Amino acid sequence: MRLYKTWVETYEKNEEIHAEGVETRREAEGDYDGMGSTPIPPGDSQAVPKAKPKPKPKSSAPKVKTDEQLARAAVVKANANLLEISQWDYKLANASVPKVVRDAYVSSMETEGKELRDAKTAVELALSLGQSLKESTEKLESANENYRKSSGQVKKACDHSFADFLISSLGRGATSCAELQKAAHASVKEAEANKGGLSNLTRKIASLGNWGKWPQNIERDLTVLLQLPAAPLFLEIPVRSNINRKDVVMGKLPIIPPHALFHYLHVSWWLKDLNSTFPQSSGGPAWLCELRGDWKWSREAFALSTHWGAREICHLCAAKCPAHPNVQQRWTNLDREFPRRSAVNAMASCFKWPHPICGLPGFQVAQIRFCSMHIVNLGILQNLTGSLISLLFQHGFFGQGNMENHLRELSSRFRAWARVTKIEHSQGFISSGMLHMQDGYPHLTVKAWNGQVLLVFLDRCLTALVAAGAQDQEIQLAHLATRAMTCWFDRLARFPRLLSQAQGNEISNFGFRFLRLYRQLAILSVLRSVARWRLLPKVHPFRHMNEDMRHRLYNYRYCHTFKDEDNVGVCKKLAERVAKGDLMEYRIMTRFLLRVGSWVP
Ligand SMILES: [Zn+2]
Ligand SMILES: [Zn+2]
Which ligand places an atom closest to the C-alpha of 308? Predict the structure, then answer.
């Protein structure tokens, strides 16, 4: 999942770059002279980044450092270490490490400090006497090394209490249970040698598997010791057999029910530690604010009876399907701000059966959020760009010939444009396979971010077409709709999480304008019987998003699901670390729960 994570990071980065890109455009709008009059040559490679620097020739032999250089390096290091030693007490106190433990650590560090100082003095002595530095430098180096080893634990203690550190590193998949026991055991021994104290938990971890004598029992003992935050449930599902990877057999797979995890984080936290700063009445550190996900996922996860294909399509309002006799009540009525459901109405009419989530303290149906990435980028935008390409094709904007030629020309101009404007994207050549017909309407399958960049480019193309004197109503409308959508994306990326009223108005105005224009386009396409501008149910939640940004002043960029989908990466990392075999999934869950269990807010 490294790749995916990187991609998310790039996306975040891109959002900034995109904002800048649009900014440039706005400033340069006046002197833009149109794509038609000065087409960017397809093979333009002038703007391509500079050539890679030549690799340095490898030196034939590694450089040999002189004794003096070695000595100097060792002394510099020793000085840094000595400085660090003088600060441990302060640092540990800051990390609120108990006094007994702190004193034990500090006194052991001071012993190291004395060794360092003695070795350093020996080097200086050798220098002043003009003797060979070799022996004394080696001593100093080994003193540095000793210090590095033994200070590791103290460093950890500054970040967390040691036991917490051990457990959470296990939860991240960093060490095995056996290593965890060993580390705890070592620290117990050291603490005893230094007459220091250690937490009970560390001692207990050290005693796992009968003090490490039975390593195979360590994981089991740890599970018992820690009392995992939620017990995994086992579901029986068909899986491919372990033996030949062909036969389908029933296998038991563990799952963590989300409401059980929530119960742990919200309700039972205070039980875990009675000295907790969270009073019983307010629950734990976690509070249910929003449930984010794709529409389809929400529908399945929460057993929603309202969805795009149902009679009532929305869990936020009572909008009806297009077959409903009353035109006013249909979701296709995009001008109307539907009244939101009351809490009682929502509970009564949105769920197929009472879902456990409804019983959570503070739960409201409106907390099931629509994700802007799935609704807009992977929904509306794909239809919009598909239709735009179809429109430009009809007007021969990218030359004559069939669609394949047209798309090739479009791709190369798009890529050249992105190179020159320095907008990052990962879009390769668009093939006719990516522009499919969905229920008879064009639909372009591109990644969420690439679609956003492509839209800006298509906006330029339409600007050029209009500047060249195109009078067609469809082009005029498409141009305005595209412009509204690019501005919407721009504001979404630019505005902060909490919007001011002016910002809320601005962004939602672009959203509503887009919807008005897009609906006119849809009507026009019916009148002219051309298959473009499909009005898909996702425009309805898009309307809600804009209402919310106007009334509740919360930027929808902060409830899209890029980060959430990254959780898959966490689980994959754990999967790579745990022992494989029959219980692999269970082990992953356990590790994940250990991580949750060791989380201290
Ligand atoms: Zn998704
Ligand atoms: Zn609705």
Answer: 2
Burial of 575 (0-12, 13-18, 19+ CB in 10 A): middle
pLDDT tens, residue by residue, 450-499 = 999 999 999 989 988 888 888 899 999 999 999 999 999 999 989 999 99
- Residue 17's contacts (CB-CB under 8 Å, 6 or more residues apart) are 422, 423, 424
Nearest bound ligand to CA 540?
2
| Residue 125 burial (10 A CB sphere; 0-12, 13-18, 19+) | exposed
Task: Say whether both 378 and 508 belong to one domain.
Answer: yes
> Does the pLDDT value for residue 62 go beyond 60?
no
Share of the chain above pLDDT 90, in %: 25
**DSSP state string for 217-233:** GHHHHHHHHHT-SSPPE
ipTM for this model: 0.92
The predicted structure's pLDDT at residue 135: 87
Q: How confident is the model at residue 194 (pLDDT cuts 50, 70, 90)?
A: low
pLDDT > 50? residue 355 = yes
- Is 210 domain-assigned? no
Closest listed residue to residue 256, CA positions, set 593, 563, 574, 576: 593
pLDDT at 164: 64
Distance 601 CA to ligand 1 centre (A): 29
CA of 343 to the centre of ligand 2 (A): 14
- Which amino acid belongs to residue 180? L
| Ligand minimally distant from the alpha carbon of residue 374 | 1
The upper half-sphere exposure of residue 377, i.e. CA atoms within 13 Å in the direction of its Cβ, equals 23
Using DSSP's 3-state secondary structure scheme, residue 578 falls into coil
Q: What residues have a C-beta under 5 A from ligand 1, the ion?
A: 294
What ligand has the least distance to the C-alpha of 318? 2
387 assigned to some structural domain: yes
Residue 131: inside a domain: yes
539 alpha carbon, closest ligand: 2
Question: In angstroms, what is the span from residue 370 Cα to ligand 2's centroid?
Answer: 11
Do residues 501 and 577 share a domain? no
Q: Which contiguous run of DSSP H or E holds residue 255?
A: strand 248-255
Residue 564 Cα to ligand 1 midpoint, Å, equals 9
Residue 222, domain member (yes or no): no
Domain that holds residue 585: 233-285+573-597
